[in-house]
User: What shape does this take?
Amino acid sequence: MTAGRKFADAEGLAPVVREVFGTDRRISGVERLVKGTKKGVYRVGLDDGTSTIVYVWSADEDYWDGLLPEGHDDPANPFAHASGLDFFEGATRRLAAVGARSPRLLLADRSRRLYPEDIAVAEDVRGGTLEALLERDPAAGRRTLGQLAQMLRGMHAYRGPAFGRVAWIDGGGAPPSQSCERAYLERSLTHIATAVPRDARAAEGEGQLVEKLHALYEALEPRAEFGVVHGELCAEHTLVGPDGEPVIIDIEGLMYTDVEVEHCWMRMRFGPHYEALRNPDLDPRRLAYYQYVMHLDLVGGPLRIAEGDFPDRDWMLGVADHHLRQALAYRV
Assistant: This one.
C-alpha cells in the first residue's frame, strides 16, 4: 500500500455489499487489484464463495491526481482524464448497444450514502485474461480471439455522431471544434513538450520529433467517420467469460474516433496474435500517423506519472524510454 493513500477495506465496503446483495451475505475478503492508475478496483469475496468487483473513484485511488495539464477535467476535451463514474456508465451503455461484452453493471452510486466516493459494483469475470488463456490453452485462446475480432467489427462499424468521448457525446455534449486528426496532433505536441525538459534525448531531438509529426499529419486526407474505439485494448484488458467469450475492461476511455487508433494500439500489444484482429481496409497513412502519435503518448504520459508516487515508477520510465527510442527512429 502506498504511504499516505487511503484505500477501501471490508468495513467501508460492507454497506455497498448489503445494498447489492442484501443482508444474508457477508464479506469474506477484499483484494485490491493494483495495476490501475486512475481508480481503485477491488475484488470482494463473499461468504457464499462468490465475488464481485467494486470500483472506487477518489483522489487516493488516482495516481494522476495533481500531475495532469490544464484542461484535463473538461468533459468536452476528447482527451480529458478518462476517469469517473460518468465515463464508466456511458461506456457500459454504448458497448451493450453495439453488442460488445463488458462486465455487467450491478450498481452505480454517486450519493456518498453507501461509501464516501463515487462507486460502481460489477460482475466479477473469473475466467482470467485472454493473455493468460493464449499461453495456457492456445486453441481456446484463438477461439476467444476470434470472438473478439467479431466484437470489434461491430464496434468499429458503428458510426458515432461526432468525434469525442462516448459518454460526453451520447449525453448531448458538443464535439470539439478541431478535427479528429488535428486534436491528436495538438495532444502529441503537448507530449513532446512534456518530454523535452525531462529527457536529454527528447530535448536534442525536439525539432526532429515535431517535424515528423507534422509531415505525417499533412499527408492525411479529411475524413469524418468515427467508430466506437476502446483505445487501449489488449489481451490483458480482455477477460474470458463463463462461456469463453471476450469481456473487455478498462472502458472509461471509450471514444468515437478513427478506428486506426485501435489497430495501432492492438498491433503493439497483441504481437503475433494481432493477425486475427487485422482489418485490411484501413487507411495506411492514418495507421502511420497514429502509430507515431501513440509512441509520443507513451513517452509524455509515463514521464508525467513517474513524477508522482505510482508504485512501479521504474516500469513507467522503461515504457517512456522504449517509446522515445521508437519515436526518434520512426521513419516517415
